[in-house]
Amino acid sequence: MIDQVKHYIEEVKNFEAKSLEELEQFRIKFLSKKQGLITKFFAEFKNVPKEEKPEYGKVLNELKALVEHKIKTLRQHLEDQQAQKVDMDLTLPGENMAVGTRHPLSIVRRELLDIFRRMGFAVAHGPEIEDDWHNFTALNFPHDHPARDMQDTFFIERDPDVVLRTHTSNTQIRYMETHRPPLKVVLPGRVYRNEAVSYRSHYVFHQIEGLYVDRNVSFADLKQTLLIFAREFFGEHTNIRFRPSYFPFTEPSAEMDVTCTLCGGKGCPVCKYTGWLEILGCGMVDPNVLRNMDIDPEEYTGYAFGFGIERIAMLKYGINDLRIFLENDKRMLDQFQYLGDEE
Ligand code: DAH
After folding, report:
1. Residue 334: which region, alpha, beta or left (left: phi > 0; alpha: psi -120 to 50)?
2. What is the pLDDT of residues 77-129, one digit of tens each?
3. pTM, entire model
4. What ligand 1 atom has the least distance to the C-alpha of 306?
5. Which of 84, 117, 211, 276 is the most buried (most CB within 10 A)?
6. Which of the listed residues 84, 116, 146 is the one where a domain comes to its end?
């Protein structure tokens, strides 16, 4: 009897199952309550001679433990194998999560700021809710001067001294309040004007202001900086031209055109057959502005410029309706890429 049990111990040790069904047959053979071998052997216990009982009990328990262990490990193994057979290529890369895209205005703003950063300009910001002094008076807009009408202003009803800034030039003043020359800075931001919404104007848009004040700054410096900027952004074959203009805070003042980005200067509907596109206002900082900031205009001179980001983005991407920048239609936004974190 003992030998029989030992024989089964060997059998169990060598047993391998190729499937869970086979393993189930094995389990029934040994552990089935009614006909299983273990039950049968335990029933034989009473017939075993007395002196053999201890050894018989020992090998029988060993057989039982072995069977249970074998079933447990084989089942685990077979189940793992089955899981791996799932009809799926686990080495394929996962599906990308949609992370959204950067807004075209942000893409262009960053590109513009990067160009000026490479030329040594710092970047700073100013408030959108402004007082009359910073938005107008310090910039040499006299009270009741018609120049104020150039920019239709949103006033706060309760306090006419408070406005939504009409341009980023307010930040020139803020910056000169806290920094002494030499100073060289670009100032991006959102601006507001009381204008009807159309394909080419909006009551909210974006600008970048530039300001450089130091000893011996000349109009030639301004031209050189803007030429480099135009060629970096619009391409190396871009030319620029200046037309005399008027802004209260610069003297002399100019508007700058670049070679039409569409026709390269030959003339087309976009440039109204002139070959040129107007993109910014600029000039030498008016001595009155410097004086307002306690900077001596005999010692220091400076240049300033300002332009709209929407206009530049429209030229870059061939967008012909300014309103779409604010609509945030996903079909439009999805055409731009996510380009990493800002600044
Ligand atoms: N602030 C002007 C505007 O919004 C743009 C401008 C013109 C800014 C000339 C300047 C400048 O700094 O020198 O129309």
Report:
1. alpha
2. 998 888 777 777 888 888 888 778 899 999 999 999 999 999 999 999 999 99
3. 0.73
4. 8
5. 211
6. 84
